[in-house]
């Protein structure tokens, strides 16, 4: 890997995000149009037919695929392609968009992440019935895999997870486009029905519909769109062995995050992530995922997350605010859109446009997705010039 | 002489109090006896595999030449069950398999056929399994009498623990107990008619025919192992055949096990072999559309089998299901928002490719670095070598829990579903559900063994895979 290949070559000049939620009255096309036209307006794009050269899409449950995006935006006669990479889908779509601009193939491209899981009539991700080994189980069951061993090794417990849920519920109340806007208490979280131990209802994120869009361009052209553009420092993807069968897994971390972080920090030239990163949006599909991510990203020592949760290190007013918009927990988790939604929040924070949840003096922002059993992690680091 | 080289049995862990049935859905009360019931993930096939594993403990499975499987309650109407059992046991491919179906005496018929095959020299060792998981109509007298369970015998002609000496068979046509195509429930004619003209008449005729043929009398036998539909009829038939009900009758386990159908007489034979002495003679008689009687001579090798779990151990291992509604759910007899049989089901081609892993429960060991892995890989997890593995049977090993969760949303009829990552002794990691366990006993490093179960019923077919269960 050439760590300098894309650093500072690509700028985000516009972003949009529809309201996340159970959008019963909206088709995927409606959400895509809302997010894309907000991004156009943000970037000052008045003629997308001329100005957008290619489209990179990410969705896990598309009904039609690339046509959903092309038809919605009437972006024909140009490349429209779609990627799928578990919960890192949106981040991976962004990554391909960045490559296409950095290599000089296109000047300005659109990245569209979207998903409409609530059209499927089930309250969780779809089940796969091809073989007997895959069923029955739930994502909550997969992501709880590290719980027993981690708790026993480091003395953490459900109370520590509950505090993460309380934090993200609070942050979600400050984000206009979030799905859930309700403060909860540690007691609420601990007393909620168990979904899959140790996860109670409030340890699980809100699956929702949604779409988010980014307009990216070459750095040299960024000023044509806006003065406060944001630069891409790193885009990373890492796949690891399925932790359910990996013979060397230690049940204390998610390996994909550890591997993706190495790539991302190398690209961005980051040596001390806790000091050098100002805010982070991380994949809190379940509260334990956020806890492990603090450590797996090197934001704190392995085993120390509990102390940092207690002291508020990652709260909105803390030293390194995490999931400033409420995260997957309350903003919602339309799988393909989530990575792009995180970029939306980071972009707004860096520009100082995050209103009540604004973090002061943030100049470097990280986003992180992890999905599958989990096996795949995607990351971005973006910063003000 | 051909006979029983090894035996095994299986009684499902769960018990249903008979009072819970007569109470019409009320919680279980004290007294009145109980019956063994298959868990929701068990059926005649899975219980047969469990009994057979019990029987084959310490025996080289490559020496088994055939599987004869007796039952009235196979999971499929068309598709052989014996071949599923053979695959789950990871037997050789060149084995003979056959199902002995549709009659309560199918278990002993299969036993006789295995003995005949060994005597004729067409096979050296034949595994006979009898397993039944029958249903009476909910809250009927029949439902109260029926229990679930299985027995297995390895038949051979060396190291014989019990020699099958003489036999006498009767075939009869009578509409006493039956189940028709498409009906999940067993039905019965009026019980006095069934007992007098069906059960007692045929059983006693077969036993007396055996006496006459072999020149034996009741006094020659230490124990009579008799099938029976209920305690009273059973005692009546024993007396009519000339046995002393107080000293000569193998306990038929009414109130503890229940009538396990085609597996009943075979299970009682296992129970008798667990308590007998070398030199004793046993009488075995089963009933169903006629009757069959055998004289069995117990030999010295039987003492070597007494470490097997058998019937006694399994009867002592018990847990009560305290809710009759749950039992109905287990049998898909209650309408539910969550239909376990809905959905597209398992892809037959995926099943075909995964049979060695999913049914035989084989993992693989890298010849280069020794890393054990499951499922099969083309490229080694440990050293990345391509296609250089030995297949290793995991089902008869033990393991320990590396991780677990209690999943309340995974669609189990008895939540929470216990989901684990289990490390098999030797190293392979397998994502497995745990069964026959309560959340309270689950902890890291818990020792587990493996049991063949229905993992789900999507598509309306019994879809089998292995689960772990605490070592008991």
Structure description:
Chain A has 385 residues and is an alpha/beta fold. Chain A has a domain of 129 residues: Peroxisomal Thiolase, Chain A, domain 1, CATH 3.40.47. In chain A, the strands form two sheets. Chain A has a nine-stranded mixed β-sheet, sandwiched between helices. In chain A, strands 5-6 form a two-stranded antiparallel ribbon. Chain A is globular and about 55 Å long. The model of chain A has no long low-confidence stretch (mean pLDDT 95). With 472 residues, chain B is α+β, with helices and mostly antiparallel strands. Chain B folds into two domains: 328 residues, Peroxisomal Thiolase, Chain A, domain 1; 123 residues, no CATH class. In chain B, the strands form five sheets. Chain B has a nine-stranded mixed β-sheet with strand order 5-4-6-7-1-8-13-12-11, sandwiched between helices. In chain B, strands 20-19-18-21-22 form a five-stranded antiparallel β-sheet. In chain B, helix 3 links the parallel strand 4 and strand 5. Chain B is globular, with a radius of gyration of 22 Å. The two termini of chain B are 36 Å apart.
Query: Strand arrangement, largest sheet of chain B?
Result: 5-4-6-7-1-8-13-12-11
What quaternary form is this? heterodimer
State the CATH architecture of the largest domain in chain B: 3-Layer(aba) Sandwich
Structural class of chain A: alpha/beta
Number of DSSP helices of chain B? 11
Number of domains as seen in the coordinates of chain B = 2
Backbone CA Rg of chain B: 22 Å
What's the CATH H-level homologous superfamily of the largest domain in chain B? Thiolase/Chalcone synthase
Which short descriptors sum up this protein?
heterodimer; A: 385 residues; alpha/beta; Peroxisomal Thiolase, Chain A, domain 1; 11 strands; globular; B: 472 residues; alpha+beta; nine-stranded mixed sheet; five-stranded antiparallel sheet
